[in-house]
Amino acid sequence: MVKPITLYGSNISYFTGKMENYFRVRGIPYQLKSMQFPAFKKRMEAEVGLHQMPAVILPDGRWMTDTTKMIQWFESQFPENKIIPDDPVQAFLCLLIEDWADEWWWRAAMHYRWDYSEGADFASRHLAIELLGSVAAPIWVKKIFLKYRQRKGYTIGDGVTSQNAEQIEVDFKMLLENLEKIFAQRGFLLGERPSLADIGLAGPFFRHFALDPVPAEILKKDSPQVLNWVSRLWSTKISDCPEKLMISAPDDLEPLFQQIGSTYLPYLCANVDAVSANKKRFEFEVGGISFKGARYSKYRVWCLKELRHNYKILPKKEKEVVRRLLKKTGCWEPLWRQSELPLSKNQDNLLPFKGHTKMVGVYEAKNT
Ligand SMILES: N[C@@H](CCC(=O)N[C@@H](CS)C(=O)NCC(=O)O)C(=O)O
User: Fold this and answer.
1) Cβ(55) – ligand 1 distance below 6 Å
2) Distance, CA 127 to ligand 1 centroid (Å)?
3) Of the N and C termini of the chain, which has fewer Cβ atoms inside 10 Å?
4) Domains, in order of start, for the chain
5) Ligand 1 contacts CB of residue 164 (under 6 A)
6) Which tens digit of pLDDT belongs to each residue from 281-325?
7) How far is the CA of 44 from the centre of ligand 1 (A)?
8) C-alpha distance across the termini of the chain, in Å
9) Ligand 1 pocket, residue 13 CB under 6 Å
10) CB–CB of 41/51 below 8 Å?
11) What is the rounded distance in angstroms from the CA atom of residue 193 to the CA atom of residue 335?
């Protein structure tokens, strides 16, 4: 029997949850194992160059990291029933939504989990038991450590303040309203068949918004269709779905692109400025939300480069369709605003087998 793929992570982790949704939808067998600290961190740094969640170990023993690049790799290895659509316009839009889901909704998800005591108590206890079993300390000490670490890394330490928390939540509720309308019409973002756009959004939704006490209550009250979609995606195999997606880009996706154009892409531009100036902390205001002391991210400069590249490789006719949509929704100008992207040499070109930049430049290995 072929050994299954091993997915190392946590069963309440954002990116582990994204990868699990991918494997399940594609019908790729895997087994989930919890990362055990501190031993796993050293092992992963030695194998792939950095530690982050999740890691995948292939049956032949190769290690992998970074869900975006891993999914692209698996798509190339299993060409039947791909979740990246054949239509180049849809493929581009999926990659854009995936990137936004990975990089923008992360902060809101971390805020809801770690800045509310209900979320922080639940998650710190869970992670203390799941991941830190071999650390000789009482649970309450591990809980304090985990809350401190996650807030310092990802909420207070990444620009969330008591002044902007409310607006971050307004932005999230707008996302819910937009998605609720879509899922009242159809099963998945692009039709009755899941695509990479759904898998991307599974990151913030599956193990965070639909699980953590505060956002899960909002979903139950105001967004039952979104909640249905979360469990529908988890229980759908793409091989059982109708083959056809909708024609190109449904109009009701436009509000999502408007959100991307007013917050995420301008944020990527501000991050480019910060990385260019080697400013590890920076301030920015997007979509009426002002952030103070956000952490710069070299990884997210690369994300912007990837988005541009994905556009540049479109065939001529499809380029025109995408350009019109991006212009209409406010995405076009910030996509190209920065003339120089401060990328490190060969940044991330060995992904998904080796990586060297973590998402927000937080808790990196000393040699990076
Ligand atoms: N771009 C990466 C991001 C992975 C990531 O940042 N994962 C989080 C946990 S869900 C993490 O490991 N953070 C590192 C840390 O907290 O040290 C991916 O797609 O896999």
Assistant:
1) no
2) 15
3) N
4) 1-358 (1.20.1050.10)
5) no
6) 999 999 999 999 999 999 999 999 999 999 999 999 999 999 999
7) 13
8) 39
9) yes
10) yes
11) 29
Q: What separation in Å is there between the alpha carbon of 102 and the centre of ligand 1?
A: 10
Amino acid at 236: T
pTM of the model: 0.97
Burial (CB count <10 Å: 0-12, 13-18, 19+), residue 52: buried
Say yes or no: CB of residue 66 within 6 Å of ligand 1: yes
Atom of ligand 1 nearest to the CA of 358: 6
Q: What is the DSSP letter of 5?
A: E
Q: Which residue has the tokens 């400013």?
A: 279
* Index of the ligand 1 atom closest to the CA of residue 149: 16
Q: What is the pairing mode between strands 5-9 and 30-34?
A: parallel
**Torsions phi, psi of 33, nearest 5?**
-125, 145
Q: Is 363 in the pocket of ligand 1 (CB under 6 A)?
A: yes
Integer Cα distance of 164 and 286 in angstroms: 11
- Residue 284 near residue 270 (C-beta atoms within 8 A): yes
- Ligand 1 binding pocket includes 359 (Cβ within 6 Å): yes
pLDDT digits (tens, 9 = 90+) for 72-109: 999 999 999 999 999 999 999 999 999 999 999 999 99
Q: Token digits for 134?
A: 């071999």
Cβ–ligand 1 distance for 297 under 6 Å, the answer no
